[in-house]
Design goal:
single chain, about 270 residues, Rossmann fold, 2 domains, five-stranded parallel β-sheet, 9 helices, 8 strands
């Protein structure tokens, strides 16, 4: 396994907990902010745009033209590239949801009561309690709406996680020790297949992100799968010369052993006389 993905509420100190657990395990630690910075650099997008995407959901009339799905694909590619390296704890608002279901890893939700989170946010951001109250409530609403809009997921649904931790009930060091112990126990039962599945998921995500980042492919609808490094890209209109362009882009991704392109037939247009 060797991967812990933490999804945290604002003011819940999930990142601090993640850092402590990583130290206990001797793992790397990455925050959502660090991953956003890496994503902005790798895909040549504004860090401010990425931060806006990470929190806000587009209004209904903006969704079709929003860059949200593209930014999500970019972030997912960077996230999976890092977790495929193994031995890492990642803490962000949606980190647990970017971990593929078939890949072994510990999905954790870190929460705390509203009043606790307001006090913590006021201290962290050096703002008044009134301002912190407004910030936390608005932040909760935006992040939840964004997750539902982009991914169809309710962040507050406990069954999405392996563990839900309330940081107001026990000390962070104790929770970190417990989390590290659980991860170590699960790690002892792990086999090679989940690691292979994680690498394949990372390759597929990176190929998909590279394709939609390409100016000539950007708006094309493509699906990418990977098995043991063998990549298959499918979508409407992937015929010459587009198939060769797709193959060339996919081959730039580390770990790709082969690339197959499958063109789907475009829907038949019915005409009436």
């Amino acid at each position: 396994m060797a991967v812990i993905a933490i999804s945290q509420q604002i003011g819940s100190r999930g990142a601090v907990l993640g850092e402590l657990a990583a130290k206990e395990l001797g793992y790397r630690f990455l925050s959502g902010e660090q991953l956003i910075g890496q994503t902005a650099t790798r895909f040549n997008v504004s860090a401010e745009q990425m931060k806006w995407f990470d929190v806000h959901t587009p209004h209904f009339w903006d969704r079709q033209k929003s860059d949200g799905p593209r930014f999500a694909a970019f972030y997912r590619a960077v996230f999976l590239h890092e977790v495929a390296k193994d031995r890492v704890v990642v803490a962000g608002r949606n980190s647990a949801h970017f971990l593929p279901e078939k890949c072994q890893g510990l999905r954790v939700r870190v929460i705390a009561p509203l009043a606790t989170r307001i006090n913590q946010t006021a201290a962290d951001e050096k703002i008044s309690l009134a301002a912190a109250d407004k910030r936390v409530r608005e932040f909760d609403t935006e992040v939840k709406a964004r997750s539902i809009s982009l991914f169809g997921l309710d962040l507050d649904e406990p069954t999405l996680y392996d563990v839900v931790l309330n940081t107001s009930r026990r000390s962070l060091p104790l929770l970190a020790t417990s989390l590290a112990a659980l991860a170590a126990c699960l790690d002892s039962d792990a086999d090679a297949n989940p690691s292979t599945a994680m690498r394949d998921a990372a390759i597929a995500a990176e190929v998909h992100a590279a394709l939609i980042a390409h100016p000539k492919i950007r708006d094309a609808q493509v699906a990418v799968k990977c098995s043991s490094g063998a990549v298959r890209v499918s979508g409407p209109g992937l015929v010459p010369p587009w198939d060769n362009l797709v193959i060339g882009v996919a081959q730039t991704i580390e770990g790709v052993a082969s690339v197959e392109v499958g063109a789907e037939e475009a829907p038949i247009t019915l005409t009436t006389s």
